[in-house]
Specification:
- The complex is a heterodimer.
- Chain A is built from 10 helices and no strands.
- By secondary structure, chain A is mainly alpha-helical.
- By secondary structure, chain B is mainly alpha-helical.
- The chains are: A mainly alpha, B mainly alpha.
- At the A-B interface, helix 8 and helix 10 of A face helix 1, helix 2 and helix 3 of B.
Chain lengths: ~290, ~90
């Protein structure tokens, strides 16, 4: 997938609007893409290693109750891991296509948006299902998020909806954005984009909460010590993917920022995501050691 | 003949330290160090199991007091007259 992505970056025509928008030369844009892509590829590799460590551990304990609960979480992590390169490849293909065929811009943007929503929704459903099964291991039932978190989520959802519906470039390219964000009427944006995204993020929050309840309820200080990194990694990964997706979906508003800010924010988010995978790999490795001695 | 109650007590103690991995831990110790299935473990096997549990737990944590406590609790099972919780 990394090779496919690199090939697409090299072979597809350069985005002239980006060159114009950020006042960089074609050579400068190529250098910039390499600067962004190299850490991106490193992060994919870290994500893949994190997932493989987690898979090794869950495979070793697959017949036990906790192993059966961690299997769907593993599938969810796999989809989150694949989502990183798949979303980049899908974005390159769709943007490459509409640059060559401007008439297809709306269709390509819509396809790209739904593609991302489906992958993340699938991944978060799997993680939520697994986190629910983890509660069975400690004989606890799933409870709703605490009141404060629910209020924060409602506030965040309202703010997000406000930002999406106040994006002047949501239906057509405007206000400096070269491409529209959704090319859909508002009612379709709300029902098929915003609501599924909020549902996805809510599932992620509930999964974090379930995993937290599990880690508090489970016995064994030695096990808990090894579990700590895995729990932090999973929670961090879910949280950063939500923030990254939120950031990407508001990119037309953020396109007003200077180039250095955009690059800085992308780097920061990618670094934060890779930290989640590093913690998952470390946690899975510690838990695996318990199964090997 | 092994003692199912003895095995259950071993697992309960192991789970107090190793959580859900406790059951699998005792199974592995029984098979690799006593050459028995977990249900075939007898009181005579406990000192060996306790020793290996100490060695293994020391690899997993730096908390020496916890490791000793784990090992001692397993060892105490060998001296218990009844294994239904009463000594």
């Amino acid at each position: 997938m990394a090779l496919v992505y690199l090939a697409l970056i090299v072979l597809l025509p350069q985005d002239k609007s980006t060159v114009k928008h950020y006042h960089v030369s074609s050579g400068g844009l190529a250098a910039l893409l390499i600067i962004i892509i190299v850490p991106y590829l490193i992060i994919w590799l870290i994500a893949l290693i994190g997932y493989l460590r987690f898979k090794d551990y869950t495979h070793a304990i697959r017949k036990s109750k906790d192993g059966r609960a961690l299997q769907p979480i593993g599938s969810g992590i796999l989809w989150l891991t694949l989502w990183l390169p798949l979303s980049a490849i899908a974005a390159s293909i769709t943007s490459g296509y509409y640059r060559a065929h401007p008439g297809a811009t709306a269709t390509m943007v819509i396809l790209n948006n739904y593609f991302n929503i489906l992958i993340l929704l699938g991944a978060f459903i799997q993680i939520k299902v697994g986190s629910r099964k983890l509660l069975d291991v400690v004989k606890r039932t799933e409870t709703a998020l605490p009141q404060l978190l629910t209020i924060l989520f409602i506030a965040f959802s309202s703010l997000y909806l406000f930002l999406v519906l106040h994006d002047p470039a949501r239906r057509v390219a405007s206000h400096g954005a070269e491409v529209g964000a959704y090319y859909l009427p508002d009612w379709l944006i709300v029902t098929t984009i915003v609501i599924p995204r909020l549902v996805t993020w809510y599932l992620g929050m509930q999964a974090i909460y379930n995993i937290y309840i599990y880690s508090n309820g489970v016995k064994g200080p030695i096990y808990k010590q090894a579990l700590a990194n895995l729990v932090s990694g999973l929670s961090w990964l879910i949280l950063t993917v939500v923030v990254l997706r939120c950031f990407e979906s508001l990119s037309s508003q953020l396109s007003r920022l200077s180039l250095s800010w955009v690059v800085l924010v992308i780097y920061a988010l990618l670094a934060l995501i890779s930290l989640g995978y590093v913690l998952i790999a470390k946690g899975a490795q510690s838990l695996q050691r318990i199964e090997e001695i | 003949m092994g003692d199912t109650m003895l095995y259950q007590n071993l697992v309960e103690i192991a789970e107090d330290y190793l959580g859900p991995s406790g059951n699998r831990f005792i199974e592995r110790l029984a098979q690799s160090h006593c050459g028995k299935s977990p249900q075939q473990i007898t009181k005579k096997d406990i000192p060996e199991l306790s020793r290996w549990a100490q060695v293994s737990a020391a690899v997993l944590t730096d908390n020496a007091a916890l490791v000793t406590e784990f090992s001692n609790r397993l060892l105490k099972l060998a001296n218990k007259r009844s294994l239904n919780g009463k000594a």
